[in-house]
């Protein structure tokens, strides 16, 4: 590709970040918080870092309107570590828990929890994750300690737009929001725990945001490793039980400030616009590009698609896209094809550039493909 051209990364994680955030990080690189060192070198017990991480938390609380009765932790290990930490923190007195499996990542959450509790799978696992069974068919254990679900499946491109909270009033809801946190408002009265890897919409990899209601902290199983015990982090100085990813926290802070200035309403509006641009275009191509997900559950963040369901043509598409400065479009190995992850950091111009390339590729390859059928 031309080194001077703008490159748009559609990576499912780590995500692309706004140019304004990267520019500020560049300008401040050698002098984080006035310390004269980089954010990678700053001492995590220093007053400067304690002020930094407190500011990051305060700004995230403002952005998402997080109530005072929730703790905000910035941990490590990704959302995957929380697959084990959640049951260890919530199943001490009641081993029963509900898991709704709607894709690759909620399946892994379910499998980890099975090692620690009595897990009820709310629906039967389908061969392909392209929709969600109607809530009337869900089998929910009423006396379970919690109900776990994933709000947006990064790999399968399935997202809840109207989760049936009213049908689950008696449940403590635990939600993996790794791929769509900070893309729309959250009604915190509906949740007990929300967790998310930062590397989709908030910052670089290395930070995991865990937001826990106060009454759910302090009841970890006896077997819980200290690092997985939420209460250990809450009670530690600066809520840092161990050395945090200082660079990641700093970068998350810059991006949260950027999002706070932009406003969550504007962010949500752009998320809808970008998704509609791509879906509307694909739906107009007479099957050249197809998205397998039920329209009612199409993700605004992760959009898997096939190119004539032809792996050879898809390889060509991916190669030419990379040369055009559109990178990381390859789909996950479990589903194949292609995938465009269009998180908050992806500008509208990036999605437009992708649509323009897709149309050019279709014009150049549609006749050749159909002629061979």
Low-confidence stretches: none
* Cα distance spanning the termini: 32 Å
Largest sheet: 7 strands, mixed
The CATH class of the largest domain: Alpha Beta
The pLDDT mean sits at: 94
Proportion of beta-strand residues: 5-15%
Question: Number of helix segments?
Answer: 9
Q: Radius of gyration in whole Å, from Cα?
A: 21 Å
Q: How much helix, percentage-wise, in residues?
A: 25-40%
- Across the major sheet, the strand order is 2-10-9-8-5-3-4
The named CATH superfamily of the largest domain: Type I PLP-dependent aspartate aminotransferase-like (Major domain)
Secondary-structure class: alpha/beta
Q: What's the CATH topology label of the largest domain?
A: Aspartate Aminotransferase, domain 2
Outline, from the CA principal axes?
globular
**Count of beta strands:** 14
SSE arrangement, N to C: EHHEHEHEEEEEEEHHHEEHEEH
- Proper CATH architecture of the largest domain: 3-Layer(aba) Sandwich
Write up what this structure looks like.
The chain has 373 residues and is α/β, with parallel strands linked by helices. It contains 9 helices and 14 strands. It has helices at residues 19-28, 47-64, 78-90, 104-113, 230-235, 246-262, 264-283, 311-323, 348-371, and strands at residues 8-9, 70-75, 96-99, 118-121, 147-150, 152-153, 158-159, 173-176, 193-197, 208-213, 289-290, 302-307, 326-327, 338-341. The strands form 4 sheets. Strands 2-10-9-8-5-3-4 form a 7-stranded mixed sheet. Strands 11-12-14 form a 3-stranded antiparallel sheet. Strand 3 (96-99), helix 4 and strand 4 (118-121) form a beta-alpha-beta unit. The longest helix is centred in the last third of the chain and has 24 residues, at 348-371. The chain starts with 7 loop residues before the first strand and ends with a helix. 43% of the residues are buried.
């Amino acid at each position: 590709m031309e080194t001077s051209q703008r490159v748009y990364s559609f990576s499912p994680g780590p995500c692309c970040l706004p140019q304004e955030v990267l520019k500020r990080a560049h300008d401040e690189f050698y002098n984080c918080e006035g310390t004269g060192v980089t954010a990678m070198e700053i001492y995590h017990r220093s007053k400067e870092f304690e002020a930094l991480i407190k500011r990051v938390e305060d700004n995230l609380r403002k952005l998402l309107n997080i109530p005072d009765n929730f703790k905000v932790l910035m941990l490590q290990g990704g959302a995957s570590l929380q697959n084990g930490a959640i049951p260890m923190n919530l199943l001490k007195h009641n081993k029963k828990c509900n898991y709704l499996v709607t894709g690759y990542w909620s399946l892994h959450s379910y499998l980890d929890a099975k090692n620690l509790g009595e897990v009820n799978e709310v629906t039967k696992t389908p061969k392909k994750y392209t929709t969600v069974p109607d809530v009337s068919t869900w089998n929910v254990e009423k006396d379970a300690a919690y109900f776990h679900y994933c709000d947006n499946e990064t790999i399968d491109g399935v997202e809840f737009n109207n989760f049936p909270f009213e049908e689950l009033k008696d449940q403590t809801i635990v939600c993996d929001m790794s791929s769509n946190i900070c893309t729309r408002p959250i009604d915190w009265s509906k949740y007990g725990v929300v967790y998310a890897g930062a590397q989709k919409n908030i910052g670089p990899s290395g930070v995991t945001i865990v937001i826990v209601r106060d009454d759910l902290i302090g009841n970890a199983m006896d077997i819980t490793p200290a690092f997985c015990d939420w209460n250990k982090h809450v009670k530690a100085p600066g809520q840092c039980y161990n050395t945090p990813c200082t660079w990641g926290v700093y970068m998350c802070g810059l991006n949260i400030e950027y999002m706070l200035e932009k406003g969550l309403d504007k962010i949500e509006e752009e998320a809808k616009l970008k998704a509609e641009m791509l879906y509307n275009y694909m739906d107009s191509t007479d099957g050249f590009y197809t998205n397998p997900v039920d329209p009612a559950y199409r993700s605004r963040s992760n959009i898997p698609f096939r190119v004539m369901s032809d792996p050879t043509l898809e390889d060509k598409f991916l190669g030419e896209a990379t040369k055009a400065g559109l990178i990381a479009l390859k789909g996950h190995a479990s589903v194949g094809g292609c995938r465009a992850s269009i998180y908050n950091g992806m500008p509208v111009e990036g999605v437009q550039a992708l649509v323009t390339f897709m149309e050019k590729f279709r014009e150049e390859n549609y006749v050749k493909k159909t002629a061979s059928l």
